[in-house]
Design brief:
alpha/beta, Rossmann fold, Serine Threonine Protein Phosphatase 5, Tetratricopeptide repeat, DNA Cyclobutane Dipyrimidine Photolyase, subunit A, domain 3, six-stranded parallel beta sheet, globular, Rossmann-like_a/b/a_fold, EC 4.1.99.3, flavoprotein, FAD binding, DNA binding
């Protein structure tokens, strides 16, 4: 039996299911998928991160007496070629977005594909209600998993020590050969995944209090690791529970929001492109407003600071994500799908299910989403979570000498900053009316 170990969203050797389930002679591979890369900008930050993570994985496997063979091609071409080399089957982790499902079906027709749950904690096809239907609301979904969320430890995969490397001639492509340039990543990503986890363990006690304050470093900073599997969700769950069980609940709950959104996309795949709750909104087609939102030129300081920081770093604090998405979908009345697609292009930790679920939540169109009448006031939000405008001023030097109180008052900046493209009260009332009409029409 000759097996191909296809690393995808599991770029690590610790707690990796395919390294546990593999046997005998193996060929570990990673594919820089041309189907995906051809749609990305040449300076996409994710490619730099993934490239470095793949090289680190290669080194880790070499220390085990194995190796990692790195391809730049389509998966279909790679596996057609490897089948002719006499390999019998492929081991990989599960992935649930639409492209991954189509890709895996295609590869399974070339070589038998064995998939293992490794990027998430639960199999979305198994945790159903008593009537056999999927949960649609987070709280009962979360409560149904109390047997898991209340546990102290989830079993982790062990490496099979008896694996033998199947030698293969293959040259590792450079970033330049992939068609990308190396870009600067946020400072915290220069640390190892384990060091990032260790850093967060020191913050867990204050996590619930600090996670909404976007000028503080109070979040986990583990989204990229979860997305690309440089840390497994089991490892993170176990280490956080072990380090501070008493204060871990707030973070564990957030970890399961990620599970919930993956669960929803699995059971309702049309929600990737359609309003999950079926309402029809008369969205604005104002492209100029959308571009100003993208570029951070709306005239609303907290929105502009968040979007400029995002465009520069590929990172955005969760509270800021809620504020800018509410502004786009409610105040500007622009379709959530446009915002989701823009985030998909820029987010370092972009994950289809979480991004789609979060945008549908903000737009009041998704599963267990915010009620349509709950609309974030960006000025009140910035006053509450950035009172001294520390974050805003760090991004927008043109406001560094302005009294922070004025930054949090609509229209108070006058000649100190550009005028807002929309009146908050007017746009709020407009959104309330249009969403109410849409909801009544559906009923």
């Amino acid at each position: 039996m000759r097996q191909i170990l296809w690393f995808r969203r599991d770029l690590r050797i610790i707690d990796n299911k395919i390294l546990e389930k593999a046997s005998n002679e193996v060929l570990p591979i990673f594919i820089f998928d041309k189907n995906i890369l051809e749609k990305l900008d040449f300076d996409d930050k994710r490619v730099t991160f993934i490239y470095d993570a793949v090289l680190a994985l290669k080194k880790s496997l070499q220390e085990l007496g194995l190796d990692l063979y790195i391809f730049f091609d389509t998966p279909k071409n790679v596996f057609t070629k490897l089948k002719n080399e006499g390999f019998d089957e492929v081991l990989c982790s599960c992935d649930f977005d639409s492209y991954s499902i189509k890709r895996d079906k295609q590869i399974n027709e070339i070589l038998p594909l064995k998939r293992y749950l490794d990027s998430f904690l639960i199999n979305p096809n198994k945790n159903l209600k008593k009537d056999g239907t999927p949960y649609k609301v987070f709280t009962p979904f979360y409560k149904s998993l109390s047997w898991l969320t209340s546990s102290d430890k989830i079993g982790e995969a062990m490496i099979n020590p008896n694996l033998k490397l199947s030698k293969y001639e293959n040259k590792t492509p450079t970033l330049d050969e992939l068609g990308f340039e190396r870009v600067t990543l946020p400072e915290f990503l220069k640390k190892s995944p384990q060091n990032r986890l260790d850093d967060f363990k020191e913050k867990v006690k204050e996590y619930e209090k600090n996670r909404d304050i976007f000028y503080k470093d109070g979040t986990s900073n583990l989204g990229v690791d979860l997305r690309f599997g440089t840390l497994s969700p089991r490892m993170i769950f176990n280490e956080i529970k072990k380090s501070d069980k008493e204060n871990s609940e707030a973070f564990i709950r957030q970890l399961f929001w990620r599970e919930f959104y993956n669960y929803i996309l699995f059971h309702f795949p049309n929600s990737e492109n359609e309003n999950w709750n079926g309402i029809e909104i008369s969205w604005s087609e104002d492209e100029e407003d959308f571009q100003k939102w993208c570029e951070g030129k709306t005239g609303v300081p907290i929105i502009d600071a968040a979007m400029r920081h995002f465009n520069k770093t590929g990172m955005m604090h969760n509270r800021l994500r809620m504020i800018v998405s509410s502004f786009l979908c409610k105040n500007l009345l622009i379709d959530w799908k446009k915002g989701e697609q823009y985030f998909a292009k820029k987010l370092l930790d972009y994950e289809a299910s979480s991004n789609i679920g979060s945008w549908q939540w903000a737009a009041s169109t998704g599963a267990d989403s915010v009620p349509y009448f709950r609309i974030f006031n960006p000025y009140l939000q910035s006053a509450k979570f950035d009172k001294e405008a520390i974050f805003i001023k760090s991004v927008m030097p043109e406001l560094k000498d302005v009294d922070a109180k004025l930054i949090h008052i609509e229209g108070a900046l006058k000649d100190k900053y550009v005028n807002s493209i929309v009146d908050i009260k007017y746009s709020r009332d407009r959104a309330m009316r249009i969403f109410k009409e849409a909801k009544n029409a559906k009923v």
